Amino acid sequence: MDRRNFLKRASAATAAAAVMTTSNKWVSASAIDEDKQIGSIIDLSKCDGCEYQDTPLCVAACKTKNEHRFPQPEKPIQDYWPRDHHEDWSDEQERIDRLTPYNWTFVDSVEVDYNGEKKKVHVPRRCMHCDDATCQKLCPFGVIYKSEHGAVTIDEDFCMGGAKCRSACPWDIPQRQAGVGLYKNLAPTFAGGGVMFKCDMCVDLLEKGEKPACETSCPRDAITFGPLEEMRMEANRRANDMGGFVYGDEENGGTHTFYVSEVPYEKIDEAIQRDKQVNEDQRPGRPHMKPEVENLLYTAHGFTLAMMIAPVAGAAAAGITAYKTLKKEEVEEVDIDE
Amino acid sequence: MSKTTGKMIRQPKVNRFVHWTAAVSIIMLIITGLGQMPLYGRYLGPNPPVFLEWLQSYEITLWLHYTFASILIFTAIFHLIHHLIRKEFAIVPRKGDLKGSYHLMKAMILKKPEPPSHKYLPEQRLAYALFAVSILLLVVTGAFKVYQNVAGGSLSNTMMVVMTTGHNIGTVLIIFAFIGHMAAFLFKDNRKMLPGMFTGKVDQEYVKHRHSLWYDELKQKKQRKNKKIS
Hints:
heterodimer, A: alpha+beta, Alpha-Beta Plaits, four-stranded mixed beta sheet, 9 helices, 32% helix, globular, B: mainly alpha, Fumarate Reductase Cytochrome B subunit, two-stranded antiparallel ribbon
């Protein structure tokens, strides 16, 4: 092969590789509509945990609205073979002191030591609906969706209940109920663990232009949903006015939930951890409130570069080796009777 | 080929480099890819052996997955372009390979004389196609997943399901391809090809007997070369 032919072939191959690696047009647009993004403010200076009620009203409203979706497993429920346990909350459906498959929001009431005095703080907890939701991006079956409003929702019909979303979530929000869901029809002994449940921002109400149940039921206007950027600005304005703090704007790379508090979140988190320790509370569903939580996917931007370089480097290396071997033309010495 | 040892080159250095780099990266991709499911947590239990603990970390297995994916992409592109430039298509499936595979397998099982083969057996060409299709599916769907996960992009819900499911199907395909590749060595006749992937050389007698069509090609090539010289 002469040099001209070689160069012609090599450049054609390299061009093809470049087109394959740089074309971005195949990527479908995201389902997210920037203009429709909904955020929320949870104002801890207003929330009193409905202490005068048996159940905080936001929790009760959430339960009432979603009870038709609560899982009803057939008993007995199989263990997660070869392990000797399974997650079952079905006998604790009335539980309201943590997140469970039957309780998608709860109020964590703790006593915080701040500025030399004890202060009772009530923290409504639920899914934060992250911008770059690690649960959604890392679901091994791709069955966690984002609505056009930015609500992160689990498809209960196709969830296998592996609970990876809970491990990937910095707050361990989604909770699992065994004995229900798709896995029961596949290989229930060997794979799957039930269905994961969490707050879905009342996405059905948002689609109708209505407000989520927790907001409409709150007697103290502690919960407000609205356009994302408006909510972000309003949360920061309120925090500035009270000399307080915002949680959720930066955490996990940004979320759609903005807590506003006069008390630093480190203090709130310390109080939660202390309370858990005192009560020997090790069960899932009671999230921490550590500030500056990092999104685990953000540490990996270097891999994007590596994957973009890989095909180009492969093409270049191939060009060099092909040229060298053709020039040298390694003809095998074959012992052939002619 | 060296006349003293009766060996001849079947796999030059470049082929061996591609084969082993692809093999290591595919095996590691399968191991780390399965680590993206709650498999190791469940099956290794709460107290796995120390050297296997890393398998239970979604983060570590994901970063390793991306590392080996980059290596496999490099290798696949290198392989394609190298052979395109050199016009080497011996392993590309040909018409009649399915039938040819059937006859060859039948001959091996019944210990009957095999039909003559080229450099690669028909089932090797088919196995190559299965690996190629699996890798292509995995690379394309994986690229979308990477775009979403670490390049800061976002996909529509439909694209997300399609790409994730496609990636999972590709994983099953490549595991089958790997098992099939290993199963080939259950046949004694195939084991004579093994040294080719380690030293690059195989027995000439084996080639004459089993890959006679390739041997004839080389013979003609040598004759042409000799004519040129004289």
